[in-house]
Each structure stands twice: as structure tokens, then as C-alpha cells.
Amino acid sequence: QVRLVESGGGAVQPGESLRLSCAASGFVFRNADMSWFRQAPGKDRERVSAITRGMGSIYYLDSVKGRFTVSRDDSKDTLYLQMNNLKPEDTAEYFCAKGWGNPPPQYRGQGTQVTVSS
Question: CA-CA distance, 82 to 70, in Å (whole number)?
Fold first, then answer.
């Protein structure tokens, strides 16, 4: 079955960077579109970024454009999210998901917490 394991979260100060990783297994990663979502307490889940198989198309949430970069290494079955110039409003649980749209629970990881505060 689909298994996605995120890592790389943590607590940082505004302006700092983090790189999230998502190790995938249970499906042919190179054939899959992949996404990053986040959810903060009391807020709706939002799609932060997405990347198609072959990296033909990439999506970014407006508020992270120019700061976040999504990438994938198909040789390692791993998805990445480089997050620079982090802001307090980026604080959330981040999780990766298989697919481009809103994923069913079985197609997303357990999440990694990102906290940005001074």
C-alpha cells in the first residue's frame, strides 16, 4: 500500500530555512504526481505545492511563491520541499500526498511539524 514518511520539520526563527523530505514506497513514484499540504490548528488544510510526474507542471500557493521550492528525486523515491525565509504564518503540520488534488487519507503521510517563531 502507499506509504509516505515525512521528515525535516522543526522549530526555527523567522527568516530561517528548512528542507522537508517525503520518502515514498508502495507505488511507482516516478509515475505519480505529488503534493505538499499543510494544516494549522483551527485553519483549513491548504495545498502548498505540487509537482507532476516528469516535473512537467509545478504549483505553488501564492503566499509561498518565491520562498518555497518543490523537487523530486525519482531515483530515491523522494519528494522535497525547500522552505526559505520562513514566516510565522508558515507554522503548520506539513504532509506529503500522492496525487495532484485533495488526497484521500490513505494517500498522505503522517506529517511533520513546522514551527516558526521568534
Answer: 6
Q: What residues in the chain have per-residue pLDDT under 70? A: none
Q: Which amino acid is at 103?
A: P
* 15-41 pLDDT, tens digit each: 999 999 999 999 999 999 999 999 999
Q: Distance of CA 107 to CAs 29, 43, 53, 67, 111, Å?
A: 12, 21, 16, 26, 12
- 3-state secondary structure string across the chain: CCEEEEECCEEECCCCCEEEEEEEECCCHHHCCEEEEEECCCCCCEEEEEECHHHCCEEECHHHCCCEEEEEECCCCEEEEEECCCCHHHCEEEEEEECCCCCCHHHECCCEEEEECC
Phi–psi pair at 106, nearest 5 degrees: -75, -5
Cα dihedral sign, 28-96-103-107:
positive
